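Class, study these two lines:
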Amino acid sequence: MTATAELDAFLSANPDIEFVYVILTDPVGVSRGKGLRPHELRSVFENGRAFPASIFSLTVLGEDVEEAGLLWDIGDQDCFAFPIPGTLKRSPWLEKSAQLLLGFRADSGPVSVADPRLRLQTICDRMKGDGFHPVLAVELEFYLLDKDAARDGRIVPATAPGGLYNDQPHVYSIQELDDYAPFLRDLYAACDEQKLPAESVISEYAPGQMEITLTHRADALNAVDEAIQYKHLVKGIAEEHGMIACFMAKPFAESAGSGMHLHVSLNDAKGNNHFASDDPAGNALLRHAVGGMARTIDDAMAIFAPNANSYRRFRRKTYAPVAPTWGVNNRTVSFRVPAGPPQTRHVEHRICGADANPYLASAAVLAGMHHGIKNQIDPGPPVTGNGYDRNVDALTINWFDALDAFEASTFVRDYFGPGFVRVFSAIKRAECDRFFAQVTDLDYRWSLRTA
């Protein structure tokens, strides 16, 4: 289907649509864009839509970062973004509204070096050139929070309609799923309407925490596009039900953090799994991929854990990893090879928080795999038993150190390009400086009378 044919088919099937959001995902993972009337879409499909370059040099709060080089240095020039095929869809939680994902292209001007989706596409193309076709699935954990309490400055788990206040983990609780059934019904209906491959749901290891799996896709770009749409959908449906869907890495100090687990394998051009093996630990190619991810983990930690809050998630015995370890059917490690039939052999990357940019996180995981395969990096023996008790080097769990490692990495510059390193580092340095310049309630609690 041509681009305009996709548009014509959508408008013909949805004549009642009055408003369309066109959405970009910026380097820090925030959805930004514009609201358009339906008649404006044809120009978007034929010629793209202009956005100021500075839209990709903003902090998570939407503040300009001059040091990124995409603002005054270039006159904040317009750059054109283009539709991502297959993403023009109704937004079921909004009346007579639709959405369309956009992305910049390599010829979109100076902003193209910072486009997260373009970085993932470039790395996928590089791997395909070597005969490796990435297969990917994204798992996102999130909390459902009380929206009314948040208005009063209190952050507490949502109490489901008809349910009782819950302050216990109740992992895999059927009762908690029953309590949230109205929300889950609407969520699955919206996923079906948007053709998003949402499957099983579980209540996670904290009150109000959930995870819904998305089916793996043989096209990694498609898998991440769907994850972006899914995250937007979850937030919208939660708001309809008077709740906030929170994807912070660690919203509660005393409860489990929320991760983004990436399930990855590599196919050949005919769709056969390169990692398929009768050995539960996988074949040599899988182990080299794991070795590459482990070797480059500190280089990419600023991507996997992009915010100050991200580093609060890494705590022993909380189902978050603390070292670059791997194992078979073991949830205490960073790189888990799940149990299953030989043809399904793959790696679950468990390091990212739910706050990471899915495009960049997937790109960093795939780049690490490719680096390990090209250099035949041995990850060592798999961990058996409790990986938290292993005496190995810990992950970098300090935001300043992670940014230093990212900026110094030849691996990151090779796979992501020096332009991306410049922009992303500038934004994250600005966020880091501004975050730690704030005086918080915790400062007063620790120091008001004791200093």
Notes: Residues 220-240 form the longest helix (21 residues). DSSP finds 14 helices and 14 strands in the chain.
